[in-house]
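Internal QA ticket QA-208
Title: Verify multi-chain structure generation after dependency bump
Assignee: T.L.

Test input:
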Amino acid sequence: MSTQVNTHHEHPDVVGSRNKLGVVLILVADIAFALSVLFVYFYLKQQDVGGMWLPRASEGQAATVPANAMGAWYLTLLAGLGLLVNNYALRGARTKNPTQINLGLGAGALISIVLFVYQIIQMRQVEFTVTWGAYASCYFLITGLSALHFFITAFIGIGNWNRGRLGLYSNDFWHIDIANVWWIWMVVSSLLGAFALSNS
Amino acid sequence: MTTVMNHKSPTASHRPIMERLNVVTAVVLGVAGAVISYYLAQKFLPQNTEGSVMKTRHDQVVLIGMIGWFIGFMTGIGALVGPFRWLMGKDLSHDENMYLAGKDAGIARYFRYTTDHKVVGIQYLVITMVIFGVGGILAMLIRTNLGNPEGGWLHPQAYNAVVGIHGIVMIVATIIMITGPFGNFIMPIMIGARDMAFPRLNALSFWLIVAALAPILSSFFLGGITTGWSAYNPLASQSPAGMDGYIMFICIFAISTMVAGANITTTVVRMRAKGMTWTRTPIFIYGTVASVALALPAFPVFFLSQIMSGMDRALGTTFYDTRGGGSGWLYENLFWLMGHPEVYVILIPAVAALMEMAPVFTRRPLFSFKIAVMGIAGICGLSILVWAHHMYMTGWAPLLNAPFMLTTELISIPTGMLFLVLVGTVWRGRLWMTVPTASIFALLLNFMIGGITGIYLSDVPADAALHGSMFVTAHFHYTLMGAGLTGAIAALIFWFPKMTGRMIDKQLSWISFWMVQIGFNVAFMGMFMVGLAGQPRRVEAYAELFTRGNQITTGAAFVIMAGMLVLLWAVVYSWRHGQKAPMNPWQSKTLEWSVPNPVPLENFETLPTVTSDPYGYGKAQS
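Actual output:
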C-alpha cells in the first residue's frame, strides 16, 4: 500500500481516488492469477491423467483423501467478518468517531492474524503431502497462496490499526477505504478457493 | 516551480538509514542474503526421500539462495523503507520525498531508489541497453557457431544454454524497451503531469528488474537454460539448476510488470492535463497504456506457470509430471496465454511511437486517429484469443485448431489498420527525412514481412511443415526486431534531445540505421531460406545443404552487430559531447516539447491546459 504524501498539495480525495484505482489495477493482476489457479485445478481434475488426480493406495503410501473443504468455508466467513469490521471502522472515520475507528481496525487486525494462523493450521492437518498427486499439488498451491493473501492482509490490518491508533485517520482516511477493496477481494478469493476445494 | 527546501545536510554518521542506501548497499546485502540463506539451506534442509518424484535438494538450496539475494537486494536498495514507515505510522515528510525524488543529488540519484520519473526513465534506458548488449553477445555466439555446419565452436549443451538465455533476455529487453525508458521519462510530461501516480512503485518496478538480472546471469554457471526461452515442462523440470535462475527471473520480472502496469495506467487515467480529453491524448499514450494494460492480466499467468515449475522442481509437486497426474499441455496453455499477448505488449508501443513521429516529420495530422485507436484496441482484444496457434502440432485439442486459425488471421485486420494510419500519414506528406522518418518505412517493410509470414504460420497445414524450423525464428525476429526494435531506436533518436539535452549525432545514427536495416534483412532472409528448406531451430549443427544460407546469415549478423556498436557510440558520444538541443528541435506540438532542457524536477511550473489536438499541423488554431 502506498504512503503517498501530498507533495503537490492535492486534495486528499484526489490522492485517495488515484490510489484506489492503482490498487484495483493491481487486483486485476491478482484476479488473473487466482483465475489461472482455478483453471489449473479444474483442468487437472478433469484430465485425471493416469488416475492420479486422487491416487489410490499403493505400496508405502495411503490413498489421497481430499481435505475437508469446510475449513475453507470457515475462512471465507472469517474474511467476511473482517470486511464488516473494516466497514465499521470506515463509517467511524466518516463520522469522525475515533473509538469506532480504533475498534474496527483493531478487530480487523486481529481477524487477519487469525485468518493467517488458521490457514497454516489447516495446511498442516491434511493427511497427504505435497507429492501425493495432482490434487495434493493443487491443494497446497491454493492454500499456500491463500496464506500469502492473509499474510498481506495482516500487514495491512496491523498497519491500519497502528495508524488509526496514532490518530492519522482523523481527517484523511482513504487508506481505510482502500483496505475495504482489499477485504472484498479477500472474501471473493476465499470463496473461490472454498468452491474449488469443495469440488474435489 | 519554487519549492522551499529546509533540508539539513547532516554529517555522514548522522544520516538516516534511508539516505545511506544505494546500489552498493543493495549488492552487498543481496550477496550476504544469498550466501547466508544458501549456507543455512545446505545445513538444515533434509536429504531427498525416495517418495519424491522429481524434487531435488539442490534445487531447493539454489532457489532459497536466490530468494535470499532478492530480499537482501531489495532491502539494500531501500524498497522496504516505504512499507515499513507506513506500518509504523511515520509517513515520509516533504523533505524526505524531495530527497527520494533526487533533488540536487547529481549523478548519485541514478544509483539509488530515486522516485523522479525522469531518473527512472534514464535508468530504464541504460538497463535496456545493457540487457540488449548481453543478448546481442549471445546472439553473436550463436551465429558464430552456426557459421559452419559442424558447429563445434560451442559445446552442444553450452549452445543450448546460450540460445535459451539469449531468447529470454531479449524478450524481456524488448518488453521494456519502450514502456521503460519513454513510458517513464516522456509519458508523464506528454500528458501534462508532474510525475507518475506512484513514484515509489515506479522506482520499485525498475529495481526489481535489476534484482532479477543476477538469477538469470547465474544460470550460466548452473548448467544454463537448456530448454529455449519457452522452458517447456516437463523438460524444464529435468533441466539443470540453471532453470531455477530462469524461474526466479520470470517471477521477479512479472511482479515488476504488474506494478508498472498499474502505475502507468493510473497515471494516464487520473493525471492527464486539464483539457486533454481522450481524443486529444497523443497516440503514443494509447500505445503505452495498451501495452501495460495487456501485460497486467497476462503476466500473472506466466508468473503462476513458473511458480508451479519451481514447485515441481523443489517441492516434488506434479503439476506437469504425468506420473503424478500432471500435464505438459497445462504448461503450454499457461505459457502461451501470456506468450502471445506479450508479442503485442512489445509491438504496440513501438508502432505507436512511430505513429507519434509520423505527423511531426510529415507536417500533417495523423491519418485517422480513431482508426489508430480502434486498431490498438482490436489487437488487444484478439491477442488473448490466439494462444493455441503455438500448439497446433502438440496434439492438444485438434478440434480447436480451426477456430484458433480464424482468430489468428483476424488479427491481421486491426494490424492492417495501424499500417493504414502510418501509410496514410506519410502519403504525399512533405517528408523531413530523419532517421525516425526512415524508420517508419523500415517498420512498414519489416512488419509486413513478419506479418505475412505470420499468416502462413497461423495456417494449420503450412504450420505442420514449418513449425520448429528456422522459418519460425526468422518470422518472430522480423516482428520483434524488424518492427519492435526499429520503433524503439527511432524513439530513442526522437526523444534523445529531451532526455539528455543534446542532439544525437546525425551522421552516426544514419550509418547505424543503414547497417542495421541492411544487415537485418540479409540475415533473416537467409534464415527464411534455410527454414523453408527444412533446417530445424535450436540445433548447433546442421546438414551441408544449409551451409550457404547460414553463412549469409552469420555474415550479416556481424553487420548488425557493427551497426549496433555505431549506435551505442553515437549515444555515448552525443550524450557527452553532442550539440546542445533546443527546447523543441522537431517543432512538435505535444507537451513534452514545451518544457525546457534539462526538464525541471516537477516538469511544469504551472500545469498546462490543453486546448487543441496534438496533431493539428497546418491548422490555424492548433
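Spot checks passed. Residues 328-362 of chain B form the longest helix (35 residues).
Status: verified.
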